[in-house]
Amino acid sequence: MGAGHSHPLYRDGHSVVHHAPAEVKIAGLVAFVLAVVATPREMIWPFALYAVIVLVVWRVARIPLRWILPRMLIEAPFLVLAVLLPFAEGGQRVHVAGLQLSVAGLWAAWGIVVKGTLGVAASLTVAATTSARELPLALSRLGVPGLITSMLVLMIRYIDLLSAEISRMRMARISRGDSPRALHQAGAIAKGVGALFLRSYERGERVYLAMTSRGFDGRVPELAIVGARPRATSVQWIGALTPAAAAITVAGAAWILR
Fold this sequence. Notes:
Blueprint: H1 16-19, H2 22-38, H3 45-61, H4 65-68, H5 76-88, E1 93-96, E2 99-102, H6 103-129, H7 135-141, H8 146-175, H9 186-213, H10 234-257
Helix pairs in contact: 2-6, 2-7, 2-10, 3-6, 3-10, 5-6, 7-8
């Protein structure tokens, strides 16, 4: 893991959020998402407040909407399920624009869309302000098992290499007269996916053997990252967890006023 490596979702900046230790941002993200998920979907106003909290954090982190909103389209495939639920669910039905829709399905679709969108927005906020080199030490400080930490970090580290491998394989097929959009090439595409899996597996074995031969035992030592920030202070914990604390307060109020 090179010290200068950054994942594609990282946005370089010098805001207070960027300079906060990664472990406090990860803890705040988990607490915020849990508060959003625990909120009754029938309550509309809490989700508006959650959105305000996210917008305030974006403002403090100096993340423009034109940069982050297009990246939120990553959740688009999951919204297909939400669109189908009002038609597939049973129970009481209502007429909307000439269509008979399930009330339970509408509420379920609303819950998936709003909670998923807020979760993606919060996750992208942490990703945009946290470089990949900060993750190993942050996860270790939070007590995440070393095996899980290694898997997550290596996945982020080598996703660019896998993307480059896919591009080379695609270019090799095209140069040999292959048409990736042709239906009859589905078999060749499937074989290419299998070859990519085998190459990735073999690369993973080589990387693991190289790491263990150099004394890696699954733990990320404090000095493993050049220029790593010191452990978060009490003030930094309080500041970073303020949005999460606000979300937990909103969730508690929603349950009380339900």
